[in-house]
Design a protein that fits this description.
- There is one protein chain.
- This protein is of the alpha/beta class.
- It has a single domain, classed as Ribonuclease H-like superfamily/Ribonuclease H (Nucleotidyltransferase, domain 5, 2-Layer Sandwich).
- Helices cover 37% and strands 13% of the residues.
- The chain has 11 helices and 6 strands.
- A 6-stranded mixed beta sheet has the order 1-4-3-2-5-6.
- Helix 7 packs across helix 8.
- The longest helix has 22 residues.
- The chain is globular and about 75 Å long.
Length: 254
């Protein structure tokens, strides 16, 4: 069984996990692109992820997806869709229901890719939506990888420039690992017995903020401004009804 949620201090003690195979960066149509599509077409399950150049200033325009990562067991391909766009053959892979694409929060990634070319997404598996079936409440890739595979995933390159002229070796390893590890987690889950979370475990009650005792609340005005002054009661003065002139005259003549 897996833990419902894993602690950060537990993750730091785990060995670093990284993609063990060959990484290929593709930024144009050519022989490498054709080979990548041919390889991906033979896979039943591939890891899926995207990267976008981060925005640091409020009000700055939102950047579009810069990189698409698709990984098998021994080969990972990094498509620089920000410069080359989404080719029809690449869209065909993402529309093929016989090729499972496993990622985390895949809906947002797919929507970002559809900015370049519309395609029908089929065969996608979102780990964030199925992890609860194995008793896991964690959502982030880092926590899921630690919980399921027992490895620590580095996030040091997450906020780097994914639109740089050339991707560094560290960026390539980070991008390939994020896609590959999703595939590995899914395969591990398929071999594990399910223990779905109960509704209470899935949505635990949130702790309520502590409230001061009534005695302390009543004493607060005295502590801030000295002795509390008793509230003055307003006296209601009833106006005497004026007597009719005839009645006054009768009294005077009586």
């Amino acid at each position: 069984m897996y833990k419902i949620s894993i602690l950060p201090e537990e993750i730091e003690k785990m060995p670093l996990g990284s993609f063990p195979g060959k990484i290929t960066v593709i930024d144009k149509n050519g022989i490498d692109f054709v080979r990548a599509i041919a390889y991906l077409g033979t896979q039943k399950i591939i890891g899926f992820d995207t990267e976008t150049r981060p925005v640091f200033s409020p009000g700055q325009r939102h950047n579009h997806v810069a990189l698409l990562q698709l990984s098998g067991a021994e080969k990972a391909y990094l498509f620089r869709v920000g410069s080359m766009g989404m080719r029809k053959l690449l869209c065909a892979v993402l529309s093929n229901p016989r090729i499972l694409k496993v990622g985390a929060a895949v809906h947002d990634d797919v929507r970002g890719l559809q900015y370049y070319r519309k395609f029908e997404e089929r065969g996608f598996v979102d780990l964030q939506k199925i992890a609860y079936e194995w008793g896991i409440r964690d959502k982030s890739v880092k926590k899921l990888a630690a919980n399921i595979l027992g490895v620590r995933i580095s996030k040091s390159q997450q906020l780097s420039n994914w639109e740089a002229d050339e991707l560094s070796a560290a960026q390539q390893m980070y991008a390939a690992t994020d896609a590959w590890v999703c595939r590995e987690m899914y395969l591990k889950l398929l071999k594990s017995e399910k223990h779905p979370l109960t509704p209470e475990e899935l949505n635990p009650p949130q702790p309520q903020p502590a409230q001061a005792p009534k005695e302390a609340q009543q004493a607060a005005p005295q502590a801030e401004g000295g002795e509390a002054k008793p509230k003055k009661r307003r006296r209601r003065h009833r106006r005497k009804a004026k007597k009719p002139a005839e009645a006054v005259a009768q009294q005077d003549n009586g």
